[in-house]
């Protein structure tokens, strides 16, 4: 079957878009997001400066595409760990998902920095990044949700001055879980990303040597914070 001109153009656009993003990722690793330049990317690829704007109208559009790609890649990794641990105890599933997130971050430090590091000066992420950004958090919440449905979740206490906020949080993103679980989920999500960030960005140098064991110990504590029981608990 002969390719139509339209089909050939579509494939060429996909290939060029992929090449632009790949070069942009290389520059992120070398120079950081703040120094990303469409003209520099075009020059490296042998494109006219005006041509690259047909693919990404601005630097911010390219950054947004890279951010969504990074979130989706991390989300897919977390979701694969969630699926692969089906049938295991909730605490084991939690650890599997957390370790998958950490593994991705260590393998993609510059992309982790892009999505969870310092804000890029002059850039504000649009709402289009939210669905991809939510995937990793919802993978963790799914572990908690499944434990709750199985009657294996010890609902954490919430102080009186946080009850209204807990109810609002729960209504926003975990309406099928007890409201007290919501702030715990948000807290451990932030702590997990900070824990991983400390390792990715070298903050544990000369402080933590046995990092695998340290990570497993810490995420087990985070699991207890959201009400998950240890794997060997009756």
UniProtKB/TrEMBL annotation:
Transferase found in the keyword field: no
All residue ranges annotated as the HTH tetR-type domain in the record: 14-74
Keywords: DNA-binding, Transcription, Transcription regulation
Keyword S-adenosyl-L-methionine: no
Pfam families hit by this protein: TetR_C_33, TetR_N
SUPFAM superfamilies linked: Homeodomain-like, Tetracyclin repressor-like, C-terminal domain
Residue ranges of DNA binding: 37-56
Designated name of the protein: TetR/AcrR family transcriptional regulator
Species for this entry: Streptomyces werraensis
